[in-house]
């Protein structure tokens, strides 16, 4: 099973390892949207969460399991009966569910984290894999910190996990320490030495602490692994996991050197990246491979000259292969509702009547203010509209007095449960004044963790896309807002984050945030 096929399974852990990274937590709605696109793009296994972690995680894994069409839906479980049982319950409605259970195997983890001997951990492997296998046919077992585990002991653990019914064996480089050669050799050695290794699929799971995650994953595959655990935009603990889009495109682009196949359709990569970036609030760096804003941009004269003569002079992949559309001028202020609706459909949006009407109104408004309206502008506007649709607390109007010689002042009107409330507030700068005005209308304890602005397109009339992350009682939420006015976009992003936080804290309607 390990080496007789060159098909590599893509196991996406954006919603588990990715969501676990500080500040990246997502709402149920966001997780469902991400799972939907992963399923559609051909990801083999979606690790949807850690069901025992919270009721929210359990609900997310169960919902994703119910909705999945093609992908296997996995949940994570520590080597504890309660975790495994809860995970089994969460994935039970999937067409094809998986329990992924793990235990640490390295001496440093055994001594300081678990306070257990190697023999005791081996017993845990026997007990927990057997328990999982009694609940479901598809069981993955991971040896946490495998790359710092003595090979002899790792072999014993792997053999035991397979004997007890594990169908996938994952050997993570948990701390991102391995080099490609070492990682490849570990798989070769284990597969050769473990007598029943042919009864399981081996899996790589790499972290990017030394920037080697993708190289290590591909090296593990060269060593015999046939499953790659990775995350969209490389999201994950600390420096992140191997990036899904880089893995997929490396395999496709260099099939001469990497003779493997994977079934992910790369045309979805850009959309998935944007979705994950929006939900997590983690902006994609401009020079990020495959999905960065500059990944296909050619600035230098020599490069541009070459590109005009033959794109292959400097381009090893075509932008359209990964779902990047050439920046296109879409429409102007004379474009009608029909053309706007067609454009939305082309961009992959199908809005309900009310949202469409509001998006069209905002598009007209934007076209009045902005000389050129691009696809990216429409996308930012529609994403903003989708984010606020159904929210009971909204920004209606904002006037800010700014400049030298503060304090700066904001006069804000918001709709709170259908009632318009207006307040004035001052602050240390216009953004601070705006956020203070929001707090005056909706008093709350949340603290600002992140405030980020980026321009959607070029030029001083570009729309600003703002991300705001708030934290209250250990819970985090991220909101986004877009507008040609950076302060309006900031207010929208703040209110969106505040609404999500209210939903999370109260499990109820954001209208629970009362106007004073
Ligand atoms: O990095 C790691 O070891 C993990 C395991 C839980 C698979 O994420
Ligand atoms: Zn991990």
Question: In terms of topology, how is this protein built?
Answer:
Blueprint: E1 9-12, H1 14-20, H2 28-41, E2 45-49, H3 55-67, E3 72-78, H4 81-91, E4 97-104, H5 107-114, H6 118-135, E5 139-144, H7 151-163, E6 168-173, H8 180-193, E7 201-206, H9 213-222, E8 227-230, H10 244-253, H11 269-280, H12 301-309, E9 329-331, H13 337-346, H14 353-369, E10 373-374, H15 375-388, E11 393-401, E12 408-416, E13 419-427, H16 430-441, E14 447-455, E15 464-472, E16 475-483, H17 486-506
Parallel strand pairs: 1-2, 1-8, 2-3, 3-4, 4-5, 5-6, 6-7, 7-8
Antiparallel strand pairs: 9-10, 11-12, 12-13, 14-15, 15-16
Helix pairs in contact: 2-3, 2-11, 3-4, 4-6, 6-7, 7-8, 8-9, 14-15, 16-17
Can you give a write-up of this model?
This protein has 516 residues and is an alpha/beta fold. The chain folds into 3 domains: 272 residues, Aldolase class I (TIM Barrel, Alpha-Beta Barrel); 87 residues, Recoverin, domain 1, CATH 1.10.238; 114 residues, Double Stranded RNA Binding Domain (2-Layer Sandwich). Helices cover 41% and strands 20% of the residues. The chain has 17 helices and 16 strands. Helix 4 runs parallel beside helix 6 and helix 14 crosses helix 15. The termini are far apart. The C terminus is likely disordered. Bound molecules: 3-methyl-2-oxobutanoic acid (KIV) and zinc ion.
What's the tally of helices?
17
Attached small molecules: 3-methyl-2-oxobutanoic acid, zinc ion
β-sheet strand percentage: 15-25%
Poorly predicted segments: 507-516
Number of domains: 3
Which overall shape is indicated by the principal axes computed on the Cα atoms?
A: globular
CATH superfamily of the largest domain: Aldolase class I
Largest sheet: 8 strands, parallel, barrel
Structural class by SSE content = alpha/beta
């Amino acid at each position: 099973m390990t080496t007789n096929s060159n098909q590599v399974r893509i196991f996406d852990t954006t919603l588990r390892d990715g969501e676990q990274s500080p500040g990246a937590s997502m709402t149920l709605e966001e997780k469902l949207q991400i799972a939907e696109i992963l399923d559609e793009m051909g990801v083999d296994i979606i690790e949807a969460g850690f069901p025992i972690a919270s009721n929210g995680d359990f609900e997310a894994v169960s919902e994703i399991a119910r909705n999945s069409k093609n992908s296997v839906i996995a949940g994570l479980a520590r080597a504890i009966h309660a975790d495994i049982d809860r995970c089994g319950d969460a994935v039970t409605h999937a067409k094809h569910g998986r329990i992924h259970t793990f235990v640490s195997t390295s001496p440093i983890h055994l001594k300081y984290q678990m306070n257990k001997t190697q023999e005791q951990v081996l017993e845990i492997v026997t007990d927990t894999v057997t328990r999982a296998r009694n609940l479901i046919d598809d069981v993955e077992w991971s040896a946490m910190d495998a790359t710092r585990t003595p090979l002899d002991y790792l072999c014993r653990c792997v053999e035991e996990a397979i004997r007890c019914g594990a169908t996938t064996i994952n050997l993570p480089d948990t701390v991102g320490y391995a080099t490609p050669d070492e990682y490849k050799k570990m798989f070769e050695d284990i597969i050769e030495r473990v007598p029943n290794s042919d009864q399981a699929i081996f899996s790589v799971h790499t972290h990017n602490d030394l920037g080697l995650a993708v190289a290590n994953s591909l090296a593990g595959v060269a060593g015999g692994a046939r499953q790659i655990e990775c995350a969209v935009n490389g999201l994950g603990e600390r420096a992140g996991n191997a990036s899904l889009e880089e893995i997929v495109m490396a395999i496709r682009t260099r099939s001469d050197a990497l003779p493997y196949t994977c079934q992910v359709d790369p045309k979805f990569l850009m959309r998935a990246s944007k979705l994950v970036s929006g939900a997590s609030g983690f902006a994609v760096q401009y020079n990020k491979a495959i999905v960065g804003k500059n990944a296909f941009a050619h600035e230098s004269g020599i490069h541009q000259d070459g590109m005009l003569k033959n794109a292959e002079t400097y381009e090893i992949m075509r932008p359209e292969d990964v779902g990047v559309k050439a920046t296109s001028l879409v429409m102007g202020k004379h474009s009608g509702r029909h053309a706007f609706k067609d454009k939305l459909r082309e961009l992959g949006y199908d809005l309900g009547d009310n949202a469409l009407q509001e998006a069209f109104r905002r598009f007209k408004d934007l076209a009045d203010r902005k000389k050129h309206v691009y696809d990216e502008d429409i996308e930012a506007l529609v994403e903003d509209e989708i984010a606020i649709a159904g929210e009971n607390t909204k920004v209606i109007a904002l006037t800010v007095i700014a400049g030298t010689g503060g304090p700066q002042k904001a006069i804000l009107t918001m709709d709170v449960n259908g009632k318009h409330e207006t307040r004035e507030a001052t602050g240390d700068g216009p953004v601070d004044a705006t956020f203070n005005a929001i707090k005056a209308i909706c008093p709350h304890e949340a603290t600002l963790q992140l405030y980020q602005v980026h321009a959607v397109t070029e030029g001083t009339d570009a729309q600003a896309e703002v991300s705001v992350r708030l934290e209250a009682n250990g819970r985090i939420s991220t909101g986004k807002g877009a507008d040609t006015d950076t302060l309006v976009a900031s207010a929208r992003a703040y209110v969106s984050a505040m609404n999500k936080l209210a939903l999370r804290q109260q499990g109820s309607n954001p209208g629970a945030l009362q106007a004073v």
